[in-house]
Amino acid sequence: MKRVRISLLTAAMLLTSTWVAPVQAATFTTVQPYLTDYKVGFTDGHALLTKAQYDEFEYAGQAVIVTKAGKKGLLDARTGQEITPASWDQIEIPGRNNVAIVQKGGWFQYIDLTTKKLSAAKFAGAHTYSLSADYADAIVFVGQTSMLLDSTGKVLIPPFAGKLSVVSLIPPEATGDREAKETRYLVASTAKGITLYDAASFKPRFSLANTQLIPNEGGPKTAYLKVRSGGMEGLVDVNGKYVLPAKYKAIYTWNEGYFQVLAPKGTGLWKDGRFLAEPLYQEVGFEYNNPDLYWTLDKGIVTYHSIAKGTEHALKQGATYLHDSYVLGQDPKTGMYGVLQVGGEAVIPFVYPKVEGPPAARQLVRSDGKKAMLPAWGKPIKELDFWFDSAAPIGGSYSMQLIKDGSKIGLYSENEGLILSPVENRRFRYEEATGHIVVTEPDGKVLRFGGISGKPESGQHVQTLSEQLNGVYEAGKGTVIVNRTTNQPISKLYQQVYLDDVSKLIVAADGQMADLYTPDGKLLTTQLKIAFMRERSDAPPVTFIQVGDSFYTWGGKEGTSKLALLTIADGELQAASDLVYREAVYKVVGEKKVAVTMRTDGTLDFWGEEGNQLVKKVAGASEYQADSYFGGLLIAESDGWHVYSSSLQRLTTGGYQALKLLGLSDKGAKAIVYRDKATGLYGLLTQDGKQLTAPQYESIRLSSEAFPGLWSAAEGQPPFAFSKKDQFGYLDREGKELFASKLLTKKPAISYLPLQLPSFPAYSELMKQNPLELIDFGKPYSWPEGGSSEGKFYANLALYLELPQGAGKSEVLAALTGKAIIKPDEGRSDVSDEDMYSLVYYMATGKSSLSMTAEQLTRWAEQRGIVLQRGGNQYYQTMDLYREYHQMFFSELLRSLAGKKVAKPKVLKQGELSFAQKKMIESMLLVNGRPAEQLPMPLPQAEWEQGVQPFLTAYQKQAAQLLAAYEKQVGK
Questions:
Q1: Phi/psi at 627 (5° precision)
Q2: pTM of the full predicted structure?
Q3: What is the pLDDT of residues 754-778, one digit of tens each?
Q4: Which of 543, 816, 853, 862 has CA 20 to 30 A from 516's CA?
C-alpha cells in the first residue's frame, strides 16, 4: 500500500512540473493534446490528465486511440482516463461507435466502450461490413468461435463454434442484369452444416446438414450459393433449395448468370435453372458482349448457339467472335474462311483461303492474293464489294487507311467504310494542325476528311462574330475577319479569332500579340497591341477587366516584350501606364477587381478600383499573398509586409518581417500570423490587420497542422497552437491564451543522418526541383517567390543567352531562332516541349537540331531522360509548365557544366536559410530520435540554432562531394 501511494505522488508531481497557469483557463469539452519534450499528453484545459508519453493519437468518437513505442491504447475522450494501456498492435473503432476492436499478434478481442470491459473471447479475425442501412458497421469475429456484433455493442448473432461468412446475392430473375442490387446475408458454417441468416432480422432462413459453403468473395454477381456436400459441388438458392444437386466435381461462377459445370465426362454450361450444354464437352464459354450467345468445343469443332433463337452453327476450332452475333471462322469441311451470323445464315460465303489482321482491320484474302476489309466494330457485315492489293495506315492510327490496287490508291475509313475508290495520280497527306486527311484528286480538286471520323470536312469554317462580321477559318492558313454584307475580308489572317464575352470585342491573335476589333469592324490596335497570354488553362488568352463603362487589359508595341496597362473607353484604346511591365495578372479580391503588374526588374504594382477607373495604389512591392477566402491582400514592400483591403487600402501601420495566412476549418475563414521585425517573434492579426497578440511567440500553427489527429476531433477544439521559449499552448480566435504547459523539461538530443547522397533524398529532390537553392552557376539566375513562372523562366533564359538586362519572352524567342536553336515560326507565341528538347540538345552538344525530324529529336530526348511524363486530372489541375521547363533547363545546365568547376555549392548560413533550404535540413535532423520535419511544433529558436550549426558545418565540408555524386548520378 505504501508503494502505491509513493508512485501516485510521483506521477502527480511529474504532471504538476509541466503545468503552466494560462492567462485564461479554458474547459475543453473533449480532452486536447499538449506537448512536452515532443511527447503528447492530454489536458482538459485546467489540468494535465495524462503524462506526455504518447507519439501519436487519433480521435475516434468517445475515445482517443494513442500510440506509444509502436503500441496502441485507448483513452476516454472526455476524461482522459485510460481505457486500455498502449499494448495493442492495432485498434479500430468502427463507425466511431461503442466497440473497439483490439489486436495483439494474430488474435482479436473487443472492448465495450460503455462498460470499458475487454472480451474474454479471442478471435482469429475481425472484419467490418455494411449489412444494411440499419447496420452500417457490423463486426464479424471469426475463428474457432465466431459471432456478429453491431458497432453499438449489440450482439446480433451469438458466439458459436464455427465460421461466419458474409455473402451477397441477387434475385434469380435479375441474372444478367449487371446493375442488379445485391442483398447481403450471413452464413454460419459448423461441423454439422450451414445456416443462412437474414441480414435485417438476423433470423435463420434455412439450414442444410452435412454441407459446406464455397466462398464467392470478389466473384461475379450470382443468385445462388455454391456448396459442397459429400465431396461434390452444387448450387442452392436463398431458400435452401438445390437448383443444381451436389453431384459435380467443380462449379465455376461466371458473369451473366452462367455457371461452368465439371463432371467426370466433361464440362457443361448451366444458366437459369437448366443445362444449356450437358457436361460432356471439352470446353464451353459465352460471349460477354452478347450473353445470348454461348459456344461448345468438342473434337476440334466449336459450335455457336443462340439461346433466344435456338439455333447452332459449327465451325473449326479457332473461330473469332466479331460483334452483333457475327463470327469469323472456317468451314469444318473445306477449311475456307467466311462470316456467319449466329441465329441467321452466312453473310460472307466460306470461300476464302486466308485471313489477315489485326492490329489493322481484319482482311479476307482471295486465292489470287487480293484483299478486302471486314467492317469495324458495330458496323453491319455483308458480302465484300471492293478488293485491293495492300493497305497502310495514314494519320498515326488505323482509323484511316490507304488502299492500293496496282498503281491506284483509295481511302478507307474504319467508321465510314470505303470513302474513295482507288484511282491513279491521287495524292494524300496528313495535316497535323487540323487532324485532317487532305486528298488532291487527279483533276486538282482538294478533299478533306476527318483523321478519326472519316467524315468529309470543309477547308473553311465560318463562325459568327457579330451582326456585321464573320470569322472564316481556312485549314492550314488561319482565320480572316469578313464583312457579312460585302463578304469581303477586312483583316489579315490570324491564328485565332474569337468574340470576348466580357468586352464584346473581337480578339484576333497572331503570335504573342493580338489585335482588337469592334463589333462593326473598327481596328482599335493601330499603335498598341494586346498581350496574348493565358493565366489559366480554363480562361481566355486575353484578359479584360470591366470597371464602370471602361475595360482594362495589357499590351505593348509589336516586337518588344514590355507591356503597359491599357484602357478601352468610348471606342478608343489608350495606354493607362508606361511601357514598363513584363507580365500582369487579374484578381478578384473580395468583391473588388485588382490588376497586379510586374516590372522588368521584378517589382510589383497593384491597381485597384477608384470610381470608374483602375488606379495604381501600391508601387514597387516585391511579393504578395492572396486567397479566394481572404478578402484582402498581403503585400511585401520596402518597409516590410502589410495587410491591404480589397480596395487596396493599407490596414497596417508598421511593416512586418513576414505575414502568413492560416485557414480555419469553418467557412474557409483566415487568420494572419505576423513576424515582428524587431524581435523575430510571431503574433496574430485579425483579417483587417489589427493585432490580436503581442509578438511573443516563437511559432504559431493551426492546431490541426501541429496534430494531424485533430482533423477528426469534435468541435470546440482550440484553433491555434503556439510555442514560446519553453512553453507549448493554445490560442482562441481572439488571440487569448487558453492553456500552456512546458514544452521542454530537458535538453533535446539533436543529431543528423549521414551526409551521403543515398541517405539524403531531400538534397536530390531540391536539386531536381530548383538547384538554384543550392548551386551558384556563375550568373545571377534566380527563381524568387511570387510572380509568374513564365516571367522568371524567360528572365533566366535571357541570362543564359547573354541578352541585355530587361529582355523578356520576345527577345528570348528571337535569340533562340536567330541562333538556329529552335525552328523559325512566325506564329510561335511560346516555347513548346519540342523547342525545349532543341534547347537541351544545343546545351548538350553545342549543335543545332534543326536537321533532325521531330521523331528523331523526341527519341534523343527520351534517351536523355528529359521527356515530361504528364497525365491524370489531378496533374493538369496543378500543372505549372514553366516550372517544368525551369527544371529541365537547369538540370541540363548542371549536367553540361559537370567537371568544369563552374557550378559551385552555395554556402548555407544560419539565419539566411530559405524555406526550401530549411525544409531540406529538417529532413536530416533527428530530435530525440524523431525526424525534425515530423515535429508537431518547431524547436525553440535557441535549440534550433545550436542543433543545426553542427549540420551546417558538416554540410559545407561535404557539399562539393554531394554535388559531384549528384552530377554523376544525373549524368548516367
A1: -150, 140
A2: 0.79
A3: 999 999 999 999 999 899 999 999 9
A4: 816
